[in-house]
Amino acid sequence: MSRTPNQDRPNAARDDAEYGARARAGGGGSGEDSAKGGAAQAPGQPPTADGATGVRPAPIPDGTAAHPLRFGYGTNGLADLRLDDALTLLADLGYDGVGLTLDHMHLDPLAPDLAARTRRVAHRLDALGLGVTVETGARYVLDPRRKHGPSLLDPDPEDRARRGDLLVRAVDVAADLGAHAVHCFSGVTPAGTDEDTAWKRLAESLAPVLDAAATAGVPLAVEPEPGHLLSTLADFHTLRRTLGDPEHLGLTLDIGHCQCLEPLPPADCVRAAAPWLRHVQIEDMRRGVHEHLPFGDGEIDFPPVLEALAATGYQGLTVVELPRHSHAGPHFAERSLPFLRRAAPAPHRPDRPGEPSATH
């Protein structure tokens, strides 16, 4: 849902002073399928790091050691492959891990014998040397007629509980897989629901999930998603303060979303998000358009972004997210890893003919 800055938002002035002027993509889509939901408030090139407030992210001290980045690929971009075939492909291509979306075709979280099936996947990941993060953005896993429904914001408390139960189940799966985080998002504010009510529902719905995450020792990494109630870094901090800054609440940062609507450039978003960063998704994107693009097809300058990410000390997976390119998933998986290795500050393999350059 499109909103104007500071409208009915707790701590609005403080959020904007800390994290820059808000910018949003319009439209009512959810997840990556809100691809062409409208322009951000400031279309064109992103604002400078100073923004309207003169505030910059804290610089990373000189001499900070950069950690080698670990790259993965999301199974939501390999939906036409059996899970074992997808995992084998990624291992063969040299990926460090996988973003595993729990869905009917890939480790169905609602089918019988989940624990036994999870153990088999854990053994396979171990045999292939792949790390894993658990993602929960499956379109129709809970409702075959409602994309991403029900959400944590639904008016019906039983529907909200169904989404919360799925996230608790995802935490259990993540613990059994040895995953470094569980990803989730807020959902779109339902029609007729005011923001205060929506934020209250979100906080209440996440409380038992965070309890499960604390028990399992697996961070819950909430993703700001264009068009959702929680759509920006500033919104993440609103949720964090509302919940009392729980230890196991972290952040999923989608680099493309930063390009799409954040007031700061993507590299500065990485630096600003560093203390809460638990999961990273990456793809190319254009300002004001929520459309996940292959590397080289958007506007992002990736070397500064990956340099900033490495300098933060982030050691989780950085997962390529191209869900609309599943029809050619193996092709894009093969092309994406060399691109990222060339753009990253760590040593990487030499270029191969026919691959896109890391800058454009």
Structure characterization notes:
A hairpin with a 2-residue loop joins strand 8 and strand 9. The chain has ten helices and ten strands. Mean pLDDT is 84; it is low at 1-65 and 348-353. The chain has helices at 12-19, 83-93, 114-128, 157-177, 195-216, 233-242, 255-261, 266-273, 302-312, 329-343; strands at 70-74, 97-101, 131-135, 182-184, 220-222, 249-254, 277-282, 284-286, 289-293, 317-320. It is 36% helix and 12% strand. The protein has an eight-stranded parallel beta sheet. Strands 8-9 form a two-stranded antiparallel sheet. Helix 2 (83-93) runs parallel beside helix 10 (329-343). The chain is globular and about 45 Å long. It is an alpha/beta fold and 360 residues long. The two termini are 32 Å apart.
Write a concise synopsis of the structure shown.
With 360 residues, this protein is α/β, with parallel strands linked by helices.
Q: How far from one another are the termini?
A: 32 Å
Task: Report the helical percentage.
Answer: 25-40%
Strand content: 5-15%
The general outline is globular
Strand order of the largest sheet: 3-2-1-10-7-6-5-4
By DSSP (H or I, 4+ residues per run), the number of helices equals 10
Pairing-aware structural class of the strands and helices? alpha/beta
Tell how many strands the DSSP assignment holds.
Answer: 10
Low-confidence stretches: 1-65, 348-353
Largest sheet properties: 8 strands, parallel
Rg over CA atoms: 19 Å
Q: Mean of the pLDDT scores?
A: 84
What's the helix-strand series?
A: HEHEHEHEHEHEHHEEEHEH
